[in-house]
Amino acid sequence: MDTKSLITEAKARFNHNSAKAYLKDKYDSKFIVADQNGLWRANLETINFLTATSDAEVIIIDTFNNPVKVIRQELLDKLSVVYKTTMEEWYNEWVELEKNR
Amino acid sequence: MSKGALLFAFNSPKYNYYEMAVATAKRINHFLNLPVTIVTDESSIPDNRNYTFDKTITTTPDKTNKRDWGIWINKGRYQAFELSPYTETLLLDTDYMVNSSKLLKTFDLPTDFCCHDTTSFLMQPSVSQELLSVYSFNTLWATVINFKRTNRSEQIFQCLGMVQNNFEHYANIHGFISATFRNDYGLTLATRITNGHIMPIEDIIPWNLLHVGKNTSVYRNNDHEFNTEYTVMFDNWQRGKIRKEYNTIKDTDFHVMSKENFMELIA
Predict the structure, then answer these.
(1) Are B262 and B97 in contact (CB under 8 A)?
(2) Do A18 and B124 touch (CB under 8 A)?
(3) Can you give the pTM of this predicted structure?
């Protein structure tokens, strides 16, 4: 039996909340980036800080709570790419799942 | 420098762990592009092998562990350090369904040993984290471990062996039931003991381990060998009645607790 028939026969309902939680879990891990001897999360706070600063090197706290000296532009470029691609993937899958409502 | 995955698989009277390991190894090869070594015993190896592991290591399994459904051969995981042929090893449970390249990130983490300390359950987002007991620590999970050949990693695995051999003693101290040895509990204690009774944040894989838990079944959306799309069905009990709920997932690794469900997925 294919899964569509299974859903119909079982009269199963799409669980919106668990879908939302699943997507958050799935994409949270994709924001993690190991770079320049630190572990980073490609989030708005870090990207905004790196954008707002003009120094070539900055010291910031990584996700392991260690202060790490990094080449600002290199890290900013990497985090920006990861943030953009991950958010796009997340959004597309979210839109697809929303059709099940 | 060599990287590879290590699987422990000893057939029990009820479950064919070797077959599970073959399916998992194929997915590791496909999605992670890593060689896989299996640790097993002679009696688990089938006559007609349709898959060749990078290395096959045979040992004598300890069959003294029991669960409600029968013999559960999960002791001896502490031997992973001495048995692994790799300098960087990804140690996985055989019922871990690899559907993406996500685990490759564990090799990039700036640590020599890491595992999960938090979980989430498909279809049950509000399930709380497991503790050894209400008076003790959050459980670490032995389902996914990444380790390098360092003295500290060796000490953690040696300590895991020590905890396994004295499991009843640690159960008394931490207030959990010792009737069944669990690598998760052993690992929780061994990691803390080795690190001076603290849990370094660097040893934690920075995302949740995704479980398929009770009342939940996973179905393949197609029959491709390396399918990554699934439908998850959940029996939600409300006021004495079951309400069937579902979700669809793709490109997501998960750990299947029900061996029957895992066997269906790899059939």
Answers:
(1) yes
(2) yes
(3) 0.94
Return residues 14-73 of A near B (CB < 8 Å): 14-15, 17-19, 21-22, 25-26, 28-30, 32, 34, 37-39, 63-65
Nearest to A33 by CA among B194, B206, B94, B262: B206
The letter for the amino acid at A73 is Q
> Which tokens go with B5?
């995955």
* Burial class of residue B70, CB neighbours in 10 A (0-12, 13-18, 19+): exposed
Distances (CA, A) of B141 to A10, A50, A77, A83: 34, 35, 34, 28
When CB atoms are compared, the residue of B120, B206, B246 closest to A12 is B246
C-alpha to C-alpha distance for B230 and A17, rounded to whole angstroms: 18
Q: Are B92 and B36 in contact (CB under 8 A)?
A: no
ipTM of the assembly?
Answer: 0.90
Q: pLDDT tens-digit profile of A35-79?
A: 999 999 999 999 999 999 999 999 999 999 999 999 999 999 999
Residue B261 touches partner A, C-beta closer than 8 Å: no
Q: In angstroms, what is the C-alpha Rg of chain A?
A: 19
